[in-house]
Specification:
Length: 191
Amino acid sequence: MFSCTTKYENGSPCFQPYTIKNLFENYDSLRFITETNAETTGVWDTLHNQEEGSYYVFDKNGYLQFYGYLEDSTNAYSFGITFDSIGNEIKKTGGDVIRWFISKNGNDSLAVSFFLLKINRSYGGITLTGADFSKQVSLFEGYPSNIIGAKLIISKHQEKTIIMSGEIRYDCSMKKRNIKDSLRIPEYLTK
């Protein structure tokens, strides 16, 4: 089963790329900071904080050219996608997971969560696997715009790695591929 998350006016994502209009219709525009020059408009999602979150660059026609997930106030990113004028991905930096989070949850548990990009993408069969569990997870809308993810509480007695796997469908081309990404658990969290 796929989770389709992006709506298009004419039903065809290939000829209806993601626009600044889509962004402001789907999310409260007060959460964004914009900066415009003659060629582009940069948009920062500031809902959670001003140091981490979604960043967009739209061309002068309002079409998305670049999405990046900013990790800190230096505007550094480890996940970014460049799009062509009709919404196809033409360059990608980073893995399938935008960002992993892990923390202690009481004395015997860990809270693990991850983010996936939902622009022009759908996901199916997303599973987290560790030493003593394998669980298909439901994706939820994350706090940064155009992010979906999952959170799971697991035993802290794990192997050193948690694996996320499943399938992605690119809504524009309708091509599917298997995805797999992993999180290495810091040793201090398992003690």
